[in-house]
């Protein structure tokens, strides 16, 4: 029997600490070993209790969660799950935390929420099992030379589809910042709360050479554009209405997620077939594995992130095991591989 995950709950609200403790304590595989109301208390508790996982409030008095997280990652790296309000301000702070190396983010429940912290238990267990406690450990040994797309890069007539979950913020930044301004049209499903995806798209747009936006129903897929599925209530698919477009569709969660990576990959397999590249990155569960297999069976190039560089080797592992992954690579080589697979190699590849 696996040892229980030992958790320290950090939040300035006694009510919120109590709710988080109650949710986590309901699972026999988790033990809440302590609570703290601010960064000073949390620092002392970490020293005394040596928890496996810390849940950390973003907004706290004296020292906010982001500043405290930065100190943790520098001085005593460990898995930290950020607990944030589902607001624009909370989203910006949480994205900063994920870039600093937070394991995951969960939204604070809203009034009337029937299942508060529905994914917190799974996230804590995955964090406790993870081998990676610091962002630098996501590397693949000696750092590879920085990659830049060739100055004469010309995109072929392909669509890039990417799926990610836990750890996906860092992973997507690592991949997409290697894309040139004229990259092929790229569609992404990243498991993330609704408010967060717009902020994340804006963050990516500031960091990347192509233009990045939260996908809207009817957006035409264009060269140099990246479309991020909006979180929450709809799935992102692509369809051809004289030209490939983003389509937001209703429907229940698939593999527990909405938007679902499988839904996106299935649509790309059906429309683009061998004129596509599918990429599955770090994440819990199995969402995207079956869809990536359909893409590979349709003739698409398929790429999976390797275990060593994943925050959670879940989705890529399942995809690899069922034969969906054509090539498995460390994170720092995936952007380069995508561009190699989408560059013009013959006249028939040229964009119309």
From TrEMBL:
- The residue ranges of the Response regulatory domain are 6-123
- What reaction is this protein's catalytic activity? L-glutaminyl-[protein] + H2O = L-glutamyl-[protein] + NH4(+); [protein]-L-glutamate 5-O-methyl ester + H2O = L-glutamyl-[protein] + methanol + H(+)
Return the broad EC class.
hydrolase
Q: What is its EC number?
A: 3.1.1.61, 3.5.1.44
User: What Pfam family is a match for this entry?
Assistant: Response_reg
Q: In which family does this protein belong, per the annotation?
A: Belongs to the CheB family.
Protein name per the record: Protein-glutamate methylesterase/protein-glutamine glutaminase
Q: Which organism is it from?
A: Hoeflea olei
